[in-house]
Amino acid sequence: MTTSTQTTGTSPQSSSLFRRIFSGSMHAREVRLAYLLIAPTAIIVFGLVLFPAFFSIWISFRNIGLGNLDSVFSAPFVGFDNYTAVFNDFAFKYNSLTNMGAFLTSIVFSFAGTIVTISLGLAAALLLNQPFRARGLSRAVFLFPYVAPVVSIAFVWRWMLDPKPSGIINYALLELNLIDRPIAFLAKAGWALLLVIVFEGWRYFAFAMLMILARLQAVDRSLYEAAEVDGANIGQKFWYITLPELRYVIGAIFLLRLIWTFNKFDDIFLLTGGGFGTKVLPILTYEFSFKLFDFGKGAASSMILLVFLVVFLIFYARFVMRNVEE
Amino acid sequence: MSAKTNERATFIDHLARRMSWPRIFFFLGLFIFWAMIIFPFFWMVSSSFKSQAEIAARVPALLPGELRLDAYQELFNPTWDHFQDFLTNVINSLIVAIPTALIAVILSMMGAYAIARLRFKGKDMMLNSILLIYLFPGILLIIPLFAMLSQISRWIGLEVQDNLGVLIFLYLAQTLPVALYILANYFRTIPDEIEQAALIDGCTRFGVIWRVTMPLSVPALVSVGIYTFMIAWNEFLYALVFLNDRSMFTMPIKINAIFNDPSPRIPVVMAASVVMSLPIMILFLAMERYLAEGLSAGGVKG
Predict the structure, then answer these.
(1) pLDDT tens sequence across A286-315
(2) Which of A142, A277, B10, B132 is the S-S candidate for A189 at Cβ 3.0 to 4.6 Å?
(3) Could you tell me if A135 lies within 8 Å of chain B, comparing CB atoms?
(4) ipTM attached to this prediction
(5) Is B301 contained in some domain?
């Protein structure tokens, strides 16, 4: 036991023969300890995440409702029926511009949401990269929307956007004569989707801000000094130095946020309940399974999420993990 | 560095320097961000103290006429009309969030130690797959989990609906990957030599973890604890699916239920939101220094 210092392999020069004789058993013991230490985490994570993910594929080919939920493993095999049911579902397909269907809505929502998030995050990071007195406090406050519980945030937004004149946003817009009657922002196709996207930006920009800020602070100051000597203005410095330096980190944030926004359930569920042109795939999945109790169909629609996830993950592993580490 | 020079500058200097166009844009931008972030929080607190008349008024009042505690009374006072028994929901949330945080810290500390210090086969693969698993969304897992747990409940006769213990396990699965990642990164920054010295002095590995690694990583352990607490405290979807009985609701589900009452009373919803948000915001502000770094590592998923 006292010589187990040998086994971590950080002292390569010392007593190689001695080590070769003993490291076998020491190493074996260390390996056993390692597995023991990581086993609880691995069991929970694999059992409650990885296994369900695969099980979900299985479910998507079966006919499972509330009736046979307690004997899932003998549920009848239905081939691709669930998939065709999803693809032909009125809520899934593209119908018209005001009723885009869950698939297209998801795409619009996640891309627009991600772009708004990153733009706000970039702006906030550039502000916080300047030295000023309340900088630390500002950074903390900017993180509020990101750490506050989504339920309370969503309901405050609903209350602010209330369609009666007592809703503060409608009141302000009426007072400014920008509108002549209150608008039910979260209950009107178009407006609802727009506001859900704005909400995403408001709530998650801080994540982008933190990552961009960390990268900004690592940019070599001498680049800017050299540019100043050459007479570059603020815009040029931003365009030719800052932005290229941020390229990889913005790419990484873009992919991460896209994955998360694409799979976002709570925010839209709480803001609009998935109505008025905001029915994205996660909401549709939820409705198939827990409103219609057609779990096979729900699983089939969640498979689209899984396929996207896997594609994003491949991108992520290829592009982000490699570039961020450099 | 330059922040300090700023502080030393006189007020006039300061003002003069601010008077350029970029400076004005800068403060305008800062003001817009502050306003758009603070206002909803202000509105939440303010509305929670308003009377029903003030809520429905044609001209919204920025501040309540007086500090009415009616909404809070309705949440917590059993003798009040429409008593909501919100304390039960607060306690339910604590019953879920505290064990989740404690168990996550302990388990991820063990796992992170193995990853940071010990060499074993399949380590990189395990770390990578756990990290990738972290990106799996709840909505993808909720159907199979629901089916799986219903099946298990039939086999062993364990009730999974309205069972807060089940939620703890589900939240652990959601939080352990990132906890492991943050802690493993932190452990790598602790010099190996200290542990080697302890091992030579006859400490066992568990002794080393307990006496050396743990005391040295208190900040990281605290921040991981807070993240996992926050995730469990805020989680909505799993709780929505697995809790049916109002007396078992965690706070998010209860607030959703109050909002969706046939006659929702805004002050009550806002008061409940304040009760739910306040501890999180205080925890966060107190620990912001430690937490911000982990946030960019994905500490709060979503």
Answers:
(1) 998 888 888 888 899 999 888 888 888 787
(2) A277
(3) yes
(4) 0.85
(5) no
